[in-house]
Design goal:
Helix 17 links the parallel strand 26 and strand 27. The protein starts with 9 loop residues before the first helix and ends with a strand. By secondary structure, it is an alpha/beta fold. The protein is about 35% helix and about 20% strand. It contains 17 helices and 27 strands.
Amino acid sequence: MNTSTDQRLILDHVYEHEAAQPDRVFLTQPVGGGAVVDYTWSQTLDQARRMATHIESLNLPQGACIALLAKNSAHFFMAELAVWMAGGTTVAIFPTETADNVRYVLKHCDAQLLFIGKLDTWALQKSGIPEGLRCITLPLAPDVDVPGCEDWDAITARTQPLPGRPQRKPDDLGMLLYTSGSTGQPKGVMQNFASITAATQCILADQLRRDGGVAMDSRVVSYLPLAHCFERAWVECCALINGRVHVYFTESLTTFMADIQRAQPTWFISVPRLWTKFQQGVLAKMPQAQLDAALSNPAIAAAVGKKVLAGLGLDHVRRAGSGSAPMPAELLRWYRRLGLELYEGYAMTEDFAVSHTGDTSEECLGTVGRPFPGVQARIAADGEVLVKAPGQMVGYYKQPELNAESFTPDGFFHTGDLGRCDVHGQLIITGRKKELFKTAKGKYVAPAPIENRLNAHPMVEMSMVSGVGQPAAYAVLVLDEFLRPKLGDAAVRAQVETELAQLLQDANAQVASHEYLQMLVVARTPWSMEAGTLTPTMKIKRARIEAEVAGAVDDWYRTGAPVVWA
């Protein structure tokens, strides 16, 4: 975090890297057909400075909100730097958002300008752009067909770079980060340059500690949405302040593994759903029993683990992290047996992704670790986790009434999460206050811990526990994507049903009687962002899923079966 001896903000670090290492490659962007374009620090800042000059020429209000609707790319970084240098505030919109949500964010933040970048669903999003809003397309953007829209390359070709070191004040807003909206309308989290810088320096100090105090060059892949705080803080902002990070981007889902192989990352972060998918991809080629046998042989275990990681492009990774949602302990163990130093953390957009961090010890499994240095945490009387952190938000944009509700009188943020601390001082998240529900038994059920146990099963990709007012709770499961195509085979289907029935018994053996699941229901179709059942950060939208299945729930209970096919 910032101290009295270091008052530099994130832009100050950027200017220093530009001056000290102009020819060092900073960003690598795939451009199609296996080709890439490298951008040095000098080239990155030259482009950003030219665009900053253009933005200044528009005479927008100081601190104006300037939005980015784009997948991750080198020009996303450049555009953000340009906005900051020109005195603006960036507002990144998830590239998978619906037209309605795009329009809501642009209207809510009073966006004065929109950068449109690489997108997969522009045709479905275009109607969300308010008429008359200035737009600039980044390289790799689709043909947007928006009247008056200008092109990044054309603007930077005719515009001189903004000179000097344009400064921002610590309390200037740097970003509005709109939450992914798993429980309702997205909220605009305000982060200023002081909080952005302080939180990022916490991350970098922790990474330096894990590297034994030795500053090392790093390679990362930026692929989780930059509109999400996890990626923005842990990849982009860390790279901007550290200066020794080479950031690689991905081209598409089909080239994803090749993109990772190109980067050979030394630091890799993901979310539990993707860690599960990587695991399922490995097990589709090498059954778990075969892998277990190999890893149990001391003579070949290390080589086998390295080979599996090499197949994922992760054999050079010094550290790997998981966040955004709970990760099953068995999944963490699985990766650690391969030799991957994978640990879990816990944070929120409201603390700029810096709150708690775990380690690779066995005692840390099932927890999200301890607070980062500089972070204070405590458990309220009702079990809610309260946090005060260096990256604490300024507040919610245009929602002063919500700000008053969100903090304790002494400045701790109400996370909405329930938790407890173990004997080692490590935080265990036990659920969300808003997700608790009562069955007909009259006692509260916390769905998240039960879902975490279900998700640890190799056949399960995702799950949702529900059952408000029912005789007992139930769970809906999305099966593993490699398993789903095989369900037409009667023998496979019978095996799945047998294993799920056993999973139901095992899950019920680990919970209190009022939390028993009456049945497991196999979803007919997988949940997705496109269907509106997952957020852009791959969290389930409970209310949406519950509404979709509401008409069938009573029939499921009437079957009396432990496993129901929806």
